[in-house]
Amino acid sequence: MIWLTWRQFRVQAAVVFGAIVALAVVLVVTGRELADSYAAGLAACTASGGCSAFLTNFLRDHDAQYYGLAAVTMALPGILGVFWGAPLVSRELETGTHRLVWSQSITRTRWLAVKLGLVGLASMLAAGLLSLAVSWWATPLDEAGASARPRLSPVVFAARDLAPIGYVAFAFVVGVAVGMLVRRALPAMAVTLAIFVALQIAVPLWVRPSLLPPVEATVAITPENLRGIGMSSPDGTARELTIAVEESGSWILDSDTVGADGAPVGALPAWFSECDPIMLTGPPTDPAVRNCFDRLAEEGYRQHITYHPGSRYWTFQWLEVALYGAATLAAAGFAFWWLRKRLC
Amino acid sequence: MTTLLRTRELGKRYRRRWALRDCTLDIPAGRIVGLVGPNGAGKSTLLNIAAGQLAPSAGSIEVLGGHPASGPAQLAKVGFVAQDTPAYAALTVADHLRLGARLNPRWDAAAARNRIERVGLDPAQRTGTLSGGQRAQLALTLGVAKRPELLILDEPVAAVDPLARREFLQGLMEAAAEYELSVLLSSHLVTDVERVCDYLVVLVDSHVRVAGDVDELLSSHHRLTGPRRDPGTLPAGQHVVSVSHTERQTTLLLRAESPIHDPAWTVSRVGLEDLVLAYLSPPTAAGRPALEVLR
To answer: Any idea where the domains of chain A sit in the sequence?
Structure first.
């Protein structure tokens, strides 16, 4: 059965693994240059006293590759679920070849177990390889962007380390199970893609934030932690502050400016419109800037922040794998049950 | 091993429709069994259940003394050539033989190679480019080289031209003789069955209409022709299968265990095709149960 599975699968395997190995080679070569230029630039800017400009430029210069690779890493589990998972059984049902293989001296449970195990492990290996190469390549950029785009933030998180392995296992097994239900390859592929994309949107929005209780903190607004001032109303009058938390790499879920009574304020006071243009750009030593921060503090304005600290990164990675792993096992259990009870 | 197939009130239901119902059969081993009936009569369903591909929804079934699909050992005893003889289009003929070798403990590699050679298949050819007849031959080779005790074939020659059909059935007969196979074969063509089978099962509307040894069936069925009369007045032990009247004449096809002595009738033998056709037509209006199993 292993031979047959391999015989049916080898072309697809060669295409995907060929592409991943080629990409990995490119990443190893360019990754070393990237790490070297980051180390050199960091040394230079530390010596000259300020690194924020260097970090901003460094991140901006590699934006295209950075997000491109994140997109590829996030897409691979979906692609494998759709092209390896969904047709795995449905194509056999569609062409009737399941009746050929089921009439050999092998139980259909074993048949499915070998197909699911072998191709499933191959898909996890593919996603693991890609994730490893991309994560390693992006190490300097993740370090440089620890506060601007922390590894815990949804886009980066899904394209790093262990998470893609969990995603691909799930996408693949769901593809197989959907294929057994739908019995036709093309609709099965579409349904698999829809399920996977829906979960990739739903989990970071509604599930992952509450896997652990977030940390809540109310902090003073200082020149050190103020990162941005944005408009929060269409007419441009209300202002929203972006405040960094102490721990770098934190994933900020919610950030509200609160008044003296601790309740969120709808809008900052009218006098703030004079501070708005200078608070970020002016030097903290400027009396006008100083005055703005002091006045915010005097009137009791502080920032209430709900966040997951960056130190939870690996905990979240393992939780994500466990979550998707459990869903994978459930889908596999369903597939075997369906094969025995219904698919006849 | 004395029974090939033993079913008791076997049935298969899809949602609310019964594809097979109250099927009770006892077929002795070592026979070449032909299963005939119109399309949709339940032939495929019965064969798929016997091969362990389908689970019955009612009744019980034993194939060669075991429960179908009870495990690899039972699967190894029963070969199955599915309808339309499916094959992996992207794989070659040789790949299919390797598939058979890997998945069957009793695989006869030499026999498989010889058969492929004898029927003129190119081992390097992808099966997607084979003709229907060639694919049927490949499927038969896989079924035979598996060395089963029973080979089940579901309409193997339905989509095959007459010449290829003849070659296929000939190959089947040779294999059955060589390996002492029992064969269970379905067809909607009586001529196929007539050529190869020594046991007949007629399935109509998901019910078994008649089943028995071909020779016994032929010797116990008679065509009676005589002046027009009501068939209700026949002696006991004679069962009317079909009646047809012209203005002055009545023709009966009936089953009788004893010879017919009534001088009013001209008695003649019945061919297998006429016999099957008589059973395929709706039950007689005489109200006699036409559904009986001959043992």
So the answer is: 2-212+312-341, 215-311
